[in-house]
Amino acid sequence: ARVMAVMRRMELVNSTRCVPPPCEDWLVKTVTGPSHVALARNLAAESVVLLQNKDGVLPLVGGALGLKTIAVIGKASIAEPYNPNGQGQGQGDWARGDYYAGGGSGHVVAGTVVTPLDGLRKRAELAGIE
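Structure tokens predicted for beta-glucosidase (130 residues):
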């Protein structure tokens, strides 16, 4: 119901913009180029919500007077994206999800993934943190 409400509000229900097959190119357009990746990364960064910054812990500051090390704990920090089309991963099991896209009919196979550990490691290195 929520999806249909948005479609009505955006006037997509009666849109004749694309009726296959004449517009098949539009439907199968590649949207994984560098500009799309940059946009997705920016949207993800902007959507993060800090619920509570107790005692002003964030932002983490490295260097001589700041934080020296960070511990990253748990298998989710190094989790690989799940691809139901891939070999050896339960091929065809679209109901199974991952940490990045969930599961079920809405599962999207991630083309580019930076694991939490890799992302934190890169930023920590720039800040002089181990």
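The radius of gyration is 20 Å.
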